[in-house]
Specification:
single chain; 289 residues; alpha/beta; eight-stranded parallel β-barrel; two-stranded antiparallel ribbon
Length: 289
């Protein structure tokens, strides 16, 4: 399987609110033909107003065809608390059906906080059930990590516990290498460890000026929103300008063979979103020519 390049639309979302197609065309013209939608809520599946307007599957397919683009995946909106998730009646049938109809990898959950091992196992069970629905439509259930998945319960990383207790065929990982690094783990080594459980990679870079790389160092409490906010905006930097081993990550992704897309994602930037996307593309494009 050849590794392809993509763009996560989170940072550039404000360019998509007024005219989605024109906004997408702007980033296609930079060179990004594959895109991933952030907190996209097709047809208001969660009952909330989505950050990007609702688009039916037919509308999405027509728009992607006109633009010559492909939608990689989309993240669904769930609470960030496991106990709240367990009480949420989310329509996984509709999400999986939509993913199937637009020919994407599948819906993803982009973040969760965990108080203890029991909650990890409860969430894993929830994800298995969601994945069973996705399986009916031939798409994957995808989980995206941040740094809190590298806290340990009973001596094991949360993400290791999650992987050990979920269906290896239908529950897959979108590995965010920046957040792996912020969890005190080497992204290349961890990518090698999980192998074909990973099908997507999120790639940004960590500023050389960052002095607290491992956000979990010396910490033994609950990683919630307050702890998460310790990651400062100025620690994010465009791909190729920081300390992450980008060539090593790309080489390892190609070696394990299951990773379909390396997706540029810039959570925050000192640049405007268009300049940020262009700067990352200018560095990364040579790896994909």
């Amino acid at each position: 399987m050849s590794l392809k390049l993509g763009l996560q639309l989170f940072t550039v979302r404000n360019y998509l609110r007024d005219d989605l197609e024109a906004g997408l065309a702007r980033f296609r013209d930079i060179g990004f033909k594959n895109v991933e939608f952030p907190s996209f809520d097709p047809e208001a599946l969660s009952g909330e107003k989505p950050p990007i307007r609702n688009v039916t599957s037919d509308e999405m397919n027509d728009m992607m065809d006109r633009l010559g683009m492909h939608m990689i995946s989309f993240s669904v909106q769930l609470p960030l608390d496991v106990q709240e998730v367990l009480k949420t009646d989310f329509n996984w049938d509709a999400a999986a059906k939509y993913a199937n109809e637009i020919h994407c990898a599948g819906p993803s959950v982009s973040m969760m906080f965990f108080r203890n091992k029991e909650e990890v196992l409860q969430f894993a069970d929830y994800c298995n059930k969601a994945a069973a629905v996705c399986k009916k439509y031939g798409v994957k259930f995808i989980y995206h990590n941040h740094f809190q998945e590298f806290q340990k319960f009973d001596g094991e990383y949360v993400l290791d516990l999650f992987l050990a207790n979920t269906d290896p065929e239908w529950v897959k990982i979108e590995l965010d290498t920046f957040w792996v690094k912020r969890g005190g783990v080497d992204p290349v080594a961890y990518l090698d460890k999980i192998g074909d459980r990973c099908i997507l990679i999120h790639q940004k870079d960590l500023s050389k000026s960052c002095t607290n790389v491992d956000l979990l160092a010396g910490f033994d409490g609950f990683v919630g929103q307050e702890k998460f906010n310790e990651a400062q905006h100025d620690e994010f930097i465009e791909v190729g300008q920081g300390v992450l081993d980008i060539p090593g990550i790309i080489a390892k992704a190609r070696e394990i063979g299951s990773v379909e897309y390396l997706i540029i994602e810039q959570d925050y930037s000192k640049l405007d979103p268009v300049s940020s996307a262009q700067a990352s593309y200018n560095y990364i494009k040579d790896f994909f020519e």
